[in-house]
Amino acid sequence: MDSVEGNQALAKLKATYPDSILEAKEFRGDITVTIKKENLLSILQFLRDDEELKFNHLASISGIDYLKMEDVEGRLAVVYHLYSLKNNRRLAIKTFITGDSLEIDSVYSLWKTANWQEREIYDLFGITFKGHPALKRIFLPEDFEGHPLRKDYPLEGRGERSRFDYEEE
Amino acid sequence: MGLESRFGDNILTTVADKFINWGRKNSLWPLTFGTACCGIELMSTIALRYDIARFGAEVLRFSPRQADLLVVAGRIVIKMGPVLKKIYDQMLEPKWVLALGACATSGGLFNTYGVIQGIDQFVPVDVYVPGCPPRPEDILNGLLKLQKKIERDTVLYRER
Fold first, then answer.
1. CATH code of the domain in which A91 resides
2. Is B115 within 8 Å of chain A by CB?
3. How far apart are CA B6 and CA B4, in angstroms?
């Protein structure tokens, strides 16, 4: 079990990027580090390539919508769950999407598995990933409007589920 | 069975409707459109323990052109809707549709933006089978209900 104080990866991250780390939290032995989105690519590359840490596996990428959530300033966030096969250690990197453009760097250049996961987040949250090779919808129909996993999207939709203008054969 | 020997070389007479419907209802060829857990129950119904062959519906066809019973087993999302419609259109007459489970019938517990709230909004459904998912007995009951319905049909031309 790791604590915020005794975590090797966190200590090394703080020493290398002292200005980029906003917050570090521990929950049941798992560490989540909140970083500035400008340094995302270089921090993830550092965690992947560092000889001691070797977070070589990107387990998952998630999008989060914090709309109307108390104590949270930003709205949309992206979380990267890293895993080190060498050390059997996990680390979560969270970054908030600030500004109006809703853009963040794609990590496809570091892990190929990011391709479809980033498409999923683009599809459901509308976050744009800069440098993604083919950023288009993955689940929803291509002509779908809106991003339904956002909290301000009505649960029952905007009438798209009762549109049956299918082409007659 | 020994019954034939009593009739010998005779001819049986019957009504065309009854004879044709008897043949149709006992040789339904289902197309299984399984999109969720209802599909698993349907597989169980087809397999040994419940044995749908007892009711003559064991010839599964995965081509709509060879099937006459469309079994929609599971939730249909907005992206799947046109696919289901196309498959229904490709089936030859006479054809019947069985909506299996709560999701195909009404959207079930998925009252969300992506799930169509009942396939009967764009495909005509003959029998609804309730349940989430329905037990194999329920599915067989639905099949028997459909057979009853086919019995009442007529081969004469009728405005649909």
1. 3.30.460.80
2. yes
3. 5
